[in-house]
Amino acid sequence: MTDVRAALRRFALRLLARSRGEVRAIQDLRLLVEVGRFAGVFAITLLLPAATLSWLALSSIRSEELSLDADLRARAAAMSTQVGQELSSVFVRFEDSTRARLRRGESPIAELEALSPYLRGAYRFDATGSLVAPFELPPDRGIPVPSAAYLSASRVARAAEARDPKEAVSRWDEAAALARDPTYKAEARLGAARALELAGDVRGAEDLLADLFGDHALTRDPRGFRYGDLALLRRGEIRMQRDPEVGSTSLQQLVDDLLAARWSIGLEGEAAVVREALALIDGRVSPDWTARARARLNDRYAQLAWSTRVAAELEAVPSRVPEGTFRYLGARNDSPALWAIARDGEDVYVWSFDAAGLYLDLDNNAERLGELDADLDAHLLLPGDPIPDAAVATRGLGPWLPVATLVVLPDDPEALTGQKQRRRYTRIAIVLIAVFMVSVGVINAAWIIGRELESARMKADFAANVSHELRSPITQIRLKGEALQLGLVDEGEDQQQHYDAIVLESERLSRLVDNVLDFAAIERGAKTYHLRRDDLMGLVWGQCEGHRATIEERGLELELDLPDDLPVLHFDREAIGQVITNLLSNASKYGADGQWVGVKVRDRGDRVTLEVSDRGMGIAPDELKHVFDEFFRSEDPEVRRRKGTGIGLAIVRYIVEAHGGSITVHSTRGSGTTFTVSLPTEPPEASGA
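The structure assignment produced for this chain is given below.
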């Protein structure tokens, strides 16, 4: 077994060494071993229990399928019961509210909305079975036929009103004498009052209207208006012309009296008179009173319209019911109303409900319940609708709606079979998803471990690179210092060169130490910058001139392209100087083959850009997105031969972003690289990490 593991190890090392080198192949193999060990532990501690649970879940599918039918029937019964309870609650609330009113001595036929939203009419009958409130049954009357003499006289009177009102008065009096029916006598006297008003005899018109009210208050004209109401309305108009306050009061009283009076079912004269009176006094009386009167009118008119619609049924409603109980007459097929009857003492009360509204709301509630259950649908069937064979539950809605039936059936005619299959597939899918998620977790954990090991390797490389970078300037300083100390250097130019070398290597050492310290502060989140108004162009020129000698010593030409003027920016001078130094150092280090380094500054309006370019080896396309990562160094052997720590560009990006700017890189392999720093002309809101 040991020999097999050793053979596998040698084979893996040979494969990895072809592309990674022997040392890196050993590191990669160690990483693979760690990942494999972790995966094995993960499989034993998690995958095996997950597989066991999955098997148990699959084995329970059969028992669940057997209970699906029973569950479906129970849910259907609960759904139908809930709809029935909702209908029952409508009438339970109505009965409770009505009994409470009767106990308090209040009218149970007023404010119907408070009793039930489905109530459209309410009526009170006396002990004889006569309707006494709030309406009266339509009178059995035919429209009387006027005599020919009356028709002739009335036509003459109407024609005379326009040319000679006084003559019209006489003509109307003649017509009244010729009328045989009270309807037309009252019509003639109303015409005479109108003619007196046109003639200017307002007092006479008022007196005649008063007499008309006294003699024919309840007489109705052919349109259904009561002459008494028309007389009071016209007298109120006349009074408003003479004294608006007195006229308004008169019309207010007329409105109150008519809204309290009994209206005749099928006739709308009273409603029209109230509407006209309210229009005349609008703006002259209290707005609150007007609003209440209009609300009472609308409510009374709605009840009148409904009562006219169900008048035939109302007359047939029985008036003999036991006291203290409610009797319901279910809505018939051709009837819009559902009736409730109760007796209190000698009075019998009848309420009329909107059956269509009840049907609609019950059907909507049934559909809403069906939407809450993905497997079932509930519908309300009206007379003549067949009950489907697939119905799971049925329920009658008597005694209130005996002609309607609630049915609950599967959402799909083949639902009983399809539901089982869906449940089975769902359970299997859940198990597969769980297995997939566990697998993803294993892969993700292995990837994270690999990333951590790679990060550890990069940090180890960073420590080695920093040590190497530190050793080189320290060695040069020591050698030059010892040569000067021992007098091995001739005075003059050689001695000055040694001093210059010591200073140059010291600056290089300081830059390296500063980079390491800055990077450590950035990782701790403790690095901040102090932004002040400063001259960026002066800083760029100073930094470039400071590095010119070093760049030219490497055989490179430094070309500056600076504008004549730049806006004053807000930046940390030392930090931006470090950015320029790092970019110039990279350009001279990796662009030596091109023998040129260019620095360009441009004013872009709201931003200022700084470009540092070279014509060197360039950066591989797949490495461009990593150049600003911490510790990143290219795998290219040509790059590896040049010294570096892998943190310079990371520090540059941090500094630029802390100033509210951005940095981008453009590179073509073998043609050079350009780093572009963009800084805002306006100061950022905050600085620092």
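Interim note for the steering committee: The chain has a mean pLDDT of 77. The longest helix spans residues 415-485.
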